[in-house]
Amino acid sequence: YFPYQQGSIREIEFWGSLNPTGALVPANTDKHGFDDTWVCLGKFQQPKPSGYLPNGSVGVVTSEDWTYYNEKTEYEMDNSGAYPHAWDQIRYLRIVCVSTFATWDIGLTHGGWQLGEITPYGQISN
Q1: To the nearest whole percent, how much of the chain has pLDDT over 70?
Q2: What is the pLDDT of residues 88-108, one digit of tens each?
Q3: Among candidates 89, 86, 93, which has minimal Cα distance to 126?
Q4: Is this prediction's pTM over 0.70?
Q5: CA-based R_g, the chain, Å
């Protein structure tokens, strides 16, 4: 892992659909070209306990930052605010890497990224 640098994910989005059509809809730029069956479950930025610099750059990575990155980073979907569909029933999950630490400040929209683990929680329904 390269905490807070290189191809590590800085901004990530989770999208869900119960029954996607598979069609690409380029006009749906706010949905990354996904069809209208996809709903945003949440958008997140990698937390850094010591904080980012005022210009958004990483700055010094403390031992607390390293520990948090490797052992405590998790994102919880919350349907009480900006993401009313966060608890919708879904069958398919899409993960969108919006930016890495190498690309966030230059607007690059492609490149390599790395993700260590995803452990989804929820209920299985019939």
Answers
A1: 94
A2: 999 999 999 888 888 877 766
A3: 89
A4: yes
A5: 16
Q: How many residues are there in the chain?
A: 126
Question: Average pLDDT for residues 75-93, to the nearest whole number?
Answer: 89
Q: Which tokens belong to 123?
A: 């209920």
Beta bridge partners of 92: 17
Instruction: Round to whole Å and give the CA distance between 21 and 8.
Output: 31
Both tokens of 29, joined, read: 């730029």
Which amino acid belongs to residue 121?
Y
Q: How many CB atoms lie within 10 A of CB 34?
A: 21
Burial zone of 28 (CB within 10 Å; 0-12 exposed, 13-18 middle, 19+ buried): middle
- Contacts of residues 116-124 at CB distance under 8 Å and 24 or more positions apart, as own/partner, are 116/1, 120/93
